[in-house]
Amino acid sequence: LSLQTLYTYPENWRAFKAQIAAQYSGARLKIASAPPAFSFGQTNRSPAFLSNFPLGKVPAYQGDDGFCLFESNAIAHYLSNDVLRGSTPQASAQVLQWVSFADSEIIPPASAWVFPTLGIMQFNKQATEQAKEEVKRVLSILNQHLNTRTFLVGERVSLADISVSCSLLWLFKQPYPNVTRWFLTCINQPQFKTVLGEVQLCEKMAQFDA
Amino acid sequence: LSLQTLYTYPENWRAFKAQIAAQYSGARLKIASAPPAFSFGQTNRSPAFLSNFPLGKVPAYQGDDGFCLFESNAIAHYLSNDVLRGSTPQASAQVLQWVSFADSEIIPPASAWVFPTLGIMQFNKQATEQAKEEVKRVLSILNQHLNTRTFLVGERVSLADISVSCSLLWLFKQPYPNVTRWFLTCINQPQFKTVLGEVQLCEKMAQFDA
Amino acid sequence: GTECLALERIWFEKPRYDEAERRFYEQMN
């Protein structure tokens, strides 16, 4: 079986998307996330790595045929199968719609909210309040969409569910019943569990709410 | 032929992606960008619009069969044909790679650089310098990639070229010969010209460089 | 057209967040 390699640092939610997709498609993926295979900050700065992945970012994918790919959505899409990608033109467009939604609507405010709590960005009360409102607005839209649906597109798990749920991993338990129900459905799928393990949903909104 | 509608405000580079894709695929698209069909700030806040497009964002697409789509990359992908999307699994993954690259690596610093020059954002010297450096880093990666290529993926125009060139429309003439050559090749394709008209490449980096 | 542009939601700070995330995970290593 072909040995495909995914370079990433450990616990990288962007890499999880590709790893979960591979669980569904059966693609055999070697995860290079620790020395000697990969060490974040060194390997991804080496000329050899940069010649294949000029941005020096991870996740980065290399097929056994030498085919290289960067950008997490492209890698997850490549490692998917047609069910995950959407089997009709409408479904595949809707999958891309939710994948874009995750990157453009969830990640920016979620990062603005969570980074200061991780101590990697300056805490700013006003910015955090604004980010929280943004996240609530976006989650209520998701909640509304999931009112009548089990999954985001069609009747089965797709790349849309994988991308949006991985982008929410950063957030804590959301007071949105449909989102929490859907989120638990996704992360309890065996293919998600294999990659994510047990996801601890905190009992309350992000810990600094104390 | 089915009447498909694209709601947007005029001169929206995100809508251009879908419009140029439609030029290649032959999809007949009605552009609703001025009253009475659409008025930005009113129509996209109406309950009718929000029930189809909960984010209230444009571009927004509605097919004659009622199929609705938001997120510009999903709309452009839906209105494309298989040549534009990439005809092999590798090519379609590479198309998505460059589409993601445009949104995640070009747009943020390009906007941070250009918006103040358009007077729609507070000018901040340090932020502008940083944004310029980011744009230069990203464009030199693009320039390097285009050293040996006419188009970004394979031998023909794809959604990758459409997305990346539309994201560069905001930027002014870049001192990157391969990018400028490629950019001119793209915008002189009849399908680009039909949508973009004559694109004036300023004679120097963004006007505030004076 | 620019007043419409002003309503676009763009993650202007993305490069700073990417940088912060990179530093965070490099330290973790």
Automatic annotation (TrEMBL), chain C:
Domain of life assignment? Eukaryota
Q: Which family does it belong to?
A: Belongs to the EF-1-beta/EF-1-delta family.
Name the record gives this protein:
Pyrroline-5-carboxylate reductase
Q: Source taxonomy lineage?
A: Eukaryota, Metazoa, Chordata, Craniata, Vertebrata
What stretch of the whole protein does this chain cover? 536 to 564 of 797
